[in-house]
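I am still getting used to backbone structure tokens and would like to learn alongside you. Label the sequence line and the structure token line clearly, so we can match residues to local backbone shapes. Would you write everything just below, so we can both look at the same thing?
***
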Amino acid sequence: MPSEEELFASVDALLNEEPHLPPPAERARLREAAGITQARLATALKTTTQSVKNWENGRSDPKSPRLDAYQRLLNGWAAKYPAPAAVSAAATAPAASAAPAASKLETTNAPQPVDVPGAGPARPATPAGATSRRPAPKKAAKPAADPRFPHGPLAVLDGDGSAYGVDGIVLDCPAATVVELVEWTLRESGLGAPRLHRNGKDSDPLIVLTAAAAVKLGLPERLEGHEQRRSLRLPEDHPVVKQVVKAKWRLTQRGFGPWARIYRKAQGRERQCVQLAILSWDALDERSWPGVAEMEPADIARVLGVYAQRVITPRGSTAVSGLELMTALRPPTRAVQDPQTGNWVPGHNPGSLGTEPMDPAPPEATPEHPVVVDSGWSGGFLNEEAYQWVRPVDLLSDEECTLPYAVGLDLNTAFLAAAARLVVGLSAPDHFHAPTFNPKIPGSWLVDLSHVEVDPRLPSPFTPTGERPTGPAWYQTHTVAYAQELGYNVEPIEAYLRRETGAYLDPWHDRLKTAYVDTLADLGVTKDLTDAEFLAAMERHKDTDPAMAAVLAAIKATVKGGIGKLRERPQGRKYKEGERWPALQRPTWRPDIRAAVISKARINMHRKLRNMATMTGLYPLAVLSDCVVYPSPGDSPLDFLPYAASGKPQPGGFRLGPTPGLAKLEGVQSMLWAVDLMEKGYNPARHIKGGDAVLDEGE
């Protein structure tokens, strides 16, 4: 008989064995069932996309400690998404046990109200057809609900006390004042959302007030005044504001406006904060949330709930939410152990922007910034903006003028595509004189690019107007690197460069890209469509489901608004040049990062324009931001886009598809109409597209 020591040694050997991974095909199935891309999984496991591909095709396996983390992830997915064989086996069980099993599945999968003490009864889900005409949504695998937030991230409160949550849940809210509403939300509602990053913070619950609910709580139905709607606030002597202050609650510096944040100082790790959004005060801007403010409360909850699940619980406008998402995915601090005391204290989180604001280099700032005003800087500024260019009419050929159509191609979320794998500076800028150019170092370079020759039928890649530079100017790294790519020598005069760098926007890009592609798929626009099918699906996608179409518009606005918010200008009539405005107190006030995104997007656009000219001999009529207009023999981009003999799109030029960076048809007009506009100085791209070229720098 073996001794106790021998048995223990054998058991320890089993415990120390490396985890046994499922077969490669099962690894891929589990990842796809969870809706996670290989690139996103690679980011989570701090490895490369190619390594993930190798694991899923059986070429290799990860090593510890990555192996243990991968095994834990696969086990979690396996519990959520059992193999089809397991489901089939359950379906073939004896009839005597089939009924209880079916009952259990229905109870588990259907959205069920959770009994939270004091929250009032949670009523059953509202039928889909009760508030809107839309097709039944597809059943999608959802992550397990956080037990701390059983009713989801938000609710839309109506005047009768009904609080409509996600998945059709309706709560009874007894609050008659704003203070009672805040306390009910935090103590009894079961609302909130878990953090997006292990070092981050949970999302505060959001309560959206209809006009009737606002009036019931003592708020005016509308805010009136001479300021812009987004700048309006309740006066400090308003009864509701007094009630909030008297109850020892606080308002942020933004005051009680369309997006009011009410909080108390956190107790330990528990935050006490509620976000309010008031519909009748234009909290949901029509440009970013088309038609949402006019929807029924249950439908508003559905729209905002999907956005919260795929992007983030709204904290303000889509621009504010875009910026908040950056911080949520790259928290500024993490827990580190103090070597002297052994206590865990907040420390810098590598790859983040930290907790303190950072002044830009003078050429990266805006003219009213204190760095510029106090130093008397007169050396010029970065002008990395999106294209606004029209080809001169005298450069149109006779053949182009005889083509009957002008067709606009709009790149899907071009600025989001530019943010992918974008290396930006994380530390303060250092000043250098006559440096050697290095395309791997992010920063601002003073260099003369006026000698670079570009076909006059194309815009210059170095200026937003498309005009050729006339002398030295400040450029972001991607712009200077493109001059080298074209075969020209560059000799910087001076530069402001950053020593610490990183792909800060990577998780932001990955989350928004997934949200964008998934939402398009919900509208019937998927990656497996042919180009003709894609154009047809895009033509009708907004009518398929207005709620999901609104989510798509909000995701796009989050991208542009978030990038624009990195260089928010001062607002308000009382501002004086040289003063620091509130946005400068944020670590995310980073005009250099905004410039890097726009520079890369504009260079990507020019590269496609040049490749199109090489492959097809076609030159654009105009470019506005991410929309380019071409003369065409037909009313479809299929009439002029380059295709190989096999029918596949030629690489390098414009391609159709739902992925960020690929193109879609934006508009068709007559060629004579477009030429007439150009002669009058108008931009055909603006008229075809509707003119949303600006990266919003406001709220």
